[in-house]
Amino acid sequence: MKNMYKYLKSAIEGESRTEKQHDLNVFKKSEELALKYGIKYDGKSFVPDNLELADATFEAGIELLHSVGVYCKSTEKVIQIDEEDILTSLNVINSLEIGRLKEKVTVNRRYPLSPIPPIIIGGPMGGSVSEENFLYINLSAVLENVVQGIYSGSMKQFCGEYVRPKSPLEMLAVLKAARNERLATKIGGREGLALMGPSTPTLPTSYLLVSSDELYSKYDPQEVYMDDLKIDYETLSKCIFHQEHGNHYISGQVPVFGGPCIGSAEGLAIIDVAETLQSKVLVHSSIHASGASHAATGSSSAKEILWASNLSSLAISRNMDYYTARYYWNAAGISTDMMFYETAAQAIGDTVCGRDMLLGPVGARGGIPDHSSGLESRFMGEIAQMATHLSLSEANRLITKIYSKYENKLINPPAGKSFDKCYRIKSEYDLEPTEEYELIYRKVSYEIMGHFPGEAF
């Protein structure tokens, strides 16, 4: 708590600055650092194989965080992060176990080209989910053996009523969502499977309401979300609560390429590193999740995002001890070949570059209800397992071929079908993908892995 108190004081007594000025400072400094450290995107590659470039990106991330600080939106002050605190945190890590009972999983610390696949967390991870399909979507992920945890979505209705953010009705919806998540693990015969989230709340009290042994225990990483190199009192309060109760919690940030802070792939890679350092030094989370997206497409699968995310992952996994995860925001809807291609391009890069945990995926950018399924999570896990046998250059070549399959569709992606249209649902104990959905999955799987006659890469 010592560092937390020091930085809380900084949030109160620090330099006054507008949010717009902070965004401009982050933008300018990240671009300056890209030039200073010789970080340059060639516009073609997806997986950098220059490890010196990765190390330079890490150094640039440290300098960015130290020089611009973290903006506290609650006080409109800048929290200055001591460089010594950053450096002393790099090689400090606590072992991480998630889940309970027979579903307990030890999260392995991965490095570039690690032979151990990343942890697979299924579910819509913050995407919109209808009340009627909420249980079934979570259950479809629970039923996939490759899935080692559930990151659920945001339930938008309660008893058919639209849930207004920050209203008392939200608390009832959050309780129902969390209970359905836990129920899904029991019905699927995997009680104790790690839950991550919750994603429905907007009120701090709603988050804390479900923090209990019954629902989100200390072994179920609970969500703490922040904007780009920013924080607020609500987030800091949740961090203090989780630290005091010994809970695991996951910090999440979704930097936007083309947003107010980020104008280049190089800048995005540096900011991604700086935000990971922010999470470890200031927030003290167990895991940091990044989900950079492209302003033009709303997806995490555009080429600039893939290169920058892979570069930052290489930089982090080589230079600090910390658990990292990545959100998958796909542009296409589920039950489309593009959705599978987007997932594959990301999972291959994340696996070879040392990411510890993969989250999702969710289709239709998470904005249209019910575009998540267990089949998508199964595919993500299988591709990650395959990618453990690839070198950086092999991964780059494979992603290049996969990306060509969907590059021209990112602006206008196929809509796909909602969960209840591509899963056959008879009851909680009898649901499975439709034959049409399975056929798309098998076709793309065989195509990527070289087993589909006449269409292998």
TrEMBL record:
Transmembrane segments: none annotated. Its EC number is 2.1.1.248. Pfam families: MtmB (PF05369). It is an enzyme of class 2 (transferase). One of its GO terms (biological process) is methylation. Signal peptide: none annotated. GO terms for molecular function: monomethylamine methyltransferase activity. InterPro entries: MtmB_MeTrfase, MtmB_sf. Pathway: One-carbon metabolism; methanogenesis from methylamine. This is [methylamine--corrinoid protein] Co-methyltransferase.
